[in-house]
Task: inverse folding
């Protein structure tokens, strides 16, 4: 009980002591402090709001900057993609344009127009014989008899003289060569217009080819553009010649493809025979550090050998012998003391397998080998088969057939026109190819002597068509109708046809010159024939146009 009272009293006293009325001054300042606190709190709140606004503005600015950067990056990326797409379409468009241009020039049949505005001359295409005075049978017969027929006897005498001297020269060449190290030279063969009896223009030049082979134990392995390996278009008609040992397998021994152990030895090849020094291959006339026969090395070797051979037998002859062309291996000229001279070509060739197709490196007086890819590329000549084909067909033609006469007249007119307007891309080989195609296409009775005029017109029309289309195919390559009696290699019959006019597809200047020369020859044909038909030769060329 007393404890309870004491607690109640203590509580009352504590309440009285702490009552606000006992502290009037201190309690009077409370309202003022509260207002200051509130004011400060408001100011703080305002400052925080401003800070928040500033931060929000900065965040907004950063977001805008980020969006601008992202947008710029997207624009750059899109521009790059657009540029890539544009470059791709540009390249594709150019490729398509070039393909269309090549196709148009090579295959499309249409009027070829010259940029210079000379449409009148080109309009003659397809109408070449309109307005052209073609000589009649009597004039052609008289021209052939007086101007061409008399040259046959001269050609026969010249062939006999050149062949006899060439045989003697080659025999001396064999005697001065080292049989164990030098190339082995075979007998020569006559090819070309002089041996096909259609050459008409002087000076007469005999073309002889001389096959050669490497010394034992080596041999030639030939590879052509149609043998299976891919060759670029500009190398069609060419091949390469590899110098190998005769005992070397064509496909290569397995020891070249398999690693043999140190204690194993190939019984066919030793390490000594498998590695050939470069000097040994150069002695075999190969291109440096290769096994491929070099045409330039062959030319140097042949010229030196010919010089040594002539020095051995020169005392037997009363004339001089010299090289007429230094860039041809055997372009020779015989000079007599009287001042007369005889030119002939003795050209080394390599036989293709067991056929009469030959690899030839140089073509004197022609542009056939003007663009040889390299000195290890050899052009293939079918001259022996061409001569045999003409001889074979001649046996089936009527007596005194006009096929050779047509080629002689056309070759004469072309040569005279070139002497007036300058040489063109058209050659006598193109004219001969036209004749070969017509000999195969037309029946034998169409070549009777009284049909000379008609067949000559056929040759001119066929040539005009080929010039218009820029297509004159090689007679033998790709021709599956070659007579079996010739024994022509089947690999060339099954090959793709070779267009002899392909070099003129992109060389418009040469093509233009060739077509102009052909048309000028047509216009001047009657004047040229009449000039050389009259008994008294004229000292001028009235009526003949010159460019």
Result:
């Amino acid at each position: 009980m007393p404890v309870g009272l004491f607690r109640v009293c203590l509580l009352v006293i504590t309440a009285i002591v702490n009552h606000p009325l006992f502290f009037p001054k201190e309690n009077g300042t409370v309202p003022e402090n509260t207002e200051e606190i509130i004011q400060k709190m408001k100011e703080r709140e305002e400052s925080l709001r401003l800070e928040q606004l500033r931060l929000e503005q900065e965040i907004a600015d950063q977001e805008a900057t980020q969006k601008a950067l992202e947008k710029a990056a997207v624009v750059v990326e899109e521009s790059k993609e657009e540029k890539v797409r544009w470059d791709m379409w540009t390249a594709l468009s150019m490729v398509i344009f070039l393909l269309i241009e090549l196709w148009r020039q090579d295959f499309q049949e249409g009027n070829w127009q010259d940029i210079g505005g000379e449409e009148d001359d080109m309009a003659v295409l397809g109408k070449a014989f309109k307005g052209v005075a073609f000589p009649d049978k009597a004039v052609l017969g008289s021209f052939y008899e007086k101007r061409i027929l008399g040259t046959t006897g001269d050609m026969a005498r010249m062939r006999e003289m050149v062949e006899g001297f060439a045989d003697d020269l080659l025999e001396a060449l064999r005697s001065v060569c080292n049989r164990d190290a030098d190339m082995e030279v075979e007998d020569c063969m006559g090819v070309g217009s002089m041996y096909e009896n259609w050459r008409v223009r002087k000076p007469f030049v005999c073309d002889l080819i001389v096959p050669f082979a490497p010394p034992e134990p080596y041999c030639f392995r030939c590879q052509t553009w149609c043998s299976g390996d891919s060759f670029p278009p500009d190398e069609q008609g060419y091949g390469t010649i590899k110098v190998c040992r005769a005992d070397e397998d064509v496909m290569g021994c397995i020891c070249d493809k398999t690693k043999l152990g140190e204690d194993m030895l190939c019984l066919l090849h030793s390490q000594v025979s498998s590695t050939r020094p470069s000097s040994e291959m150069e002695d075999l006339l190969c291109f440096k550090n290769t096994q491929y026969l070099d045409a330039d090395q062959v030319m140097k070797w042949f010229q030196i050998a010919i010089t040594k051979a002539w020095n051995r037998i020169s005392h037997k002859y009363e004339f001089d012998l010299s090289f007429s062309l230094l860039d041809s291996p055997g372009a020779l000229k015989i000079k007599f003391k009287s001042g007369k001279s005889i030119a002939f070509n003795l050209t080394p060739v390599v036989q293709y397998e067991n056929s009469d197709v030959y690899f030839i490196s140089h073509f004197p007086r022609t542009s056939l080998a003007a663009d040889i890819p390299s000195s290890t590329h050899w052009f293939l000549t079918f001259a022996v088969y061409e001569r045999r084909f003409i001889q074979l067909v001649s046996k089936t033609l009527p007596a005194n057939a006009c096929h050779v006469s047509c080629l002689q007249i056309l070759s004469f007119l072309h040569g005279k026109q070139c002497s007036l307007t300058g040489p063109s891309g058209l050659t006598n080989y193109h004219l001969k190819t036209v004749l070969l195609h017509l000999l195969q296409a037309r029946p034998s009775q169409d070549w009777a002597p009284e049909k000379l005029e008609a067949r000559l017109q056929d040759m001119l029309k066929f040539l005009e068509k080929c010039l218009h289309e820029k297509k004159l195919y090689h007679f033998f390559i790709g021709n599956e109708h070659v007579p079996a009696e010739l024994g022509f290699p089947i690999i060339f019959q099954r090959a793709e046809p070779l267009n002899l006019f392909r070099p003129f597809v992109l060389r418009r200047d040469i093509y233009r010159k060739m077509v102009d020369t052909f048309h000028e020859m047509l216009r001047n044909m009657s004047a040229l024939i009449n000039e050389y038909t009259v008994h008294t030769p004229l000292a001028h060329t009235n009526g003949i146009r010159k460019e």
